[in-house]
Amino acid sequence: MKRLAYACAAIVGGLAGTFLPGQHPAGAVDHGQMGEAWPIAEPDLLEVIRGRLETARATGKLDELNARFAERVKARVQRPTPVAGIASAIEDKSWEYDPTVAIEKDVRDHKGNLIAAAGQRINPLDTIGLKQKLVFINGDRPEEVSWAMAQGDDLKAKVIIVRGSPFDLMKANQRRFYFDQEGSLTAKFGIEHTPASVEQAGRILIVREVALKEGKGA
Questions:
Q1: CA distance linking residue 177 with residue 213, whole number of Å
Q2: In this structure, are residues 199 and 134 in contact, taking their beta carbons and an 8 Å threshold?
Q3: d(CA 218, CA 208)
Q4: Cα 75 to the chain's mean position, in Å?
Q5: pTM of the predicted model, to two decimals?
Q6: Confidence of residue 49 (pLDDT cuts 50, 70, 90)
Q7: CA end-to-end span of the chain, whole Å?
Q8: Cα angle vertex 189, ends 192, 83, to 5°?
Q9: What does each C-alpha distance from 13 to 28, 30, 143, 207 come to in angstroms?
């Protein structure tokens, strides 16, 4: 066994330029252990977070943070972030909006039947009409709220606010109010001023911005 071990060591030593057991290369010095070695240990991030949560719970701080978060959420729901870039109308304007869209690729149902072919132009008003006028207002301006109320009841007009509290307005006027979340609708129709309205006229939509006379809501 010793002969086999020395033979293997000689082969390895010859290939790698090292030496047989017990021998040291010229100039090599064994300095021994210079200091105590410690294993690398990192704290578990989840454990750190869990520990902080437990501390916060024990001190009551977690309940306080939850209460603050709930209040912020409630406030945001009660009064959403106003739609940016919308001002009060200073002149009457109107324009046409064509909702026709071009199909980019074939649309098929779950059985593979063709519903719409690529390149085909479809106007949704041909199948689904806009039954209610869409009314856009700044809910913080009483004159605009009065103007909106004059446009008809819930069956005739859907009131959408870009600023204000829909809940406060519903309570005061006993009807539904909606909010233009992130300004998606006003951006689609190109509305930059309120009050404004959108209503169907055949196969197109008519968009109007109305400048209210001071002191009058209609």
A1: 23
A2: yes
A3: 14
A4: 18
A5: 0.65
A6: confident
A7: 109
A8: 45
A9: 16, 19, 96, 89
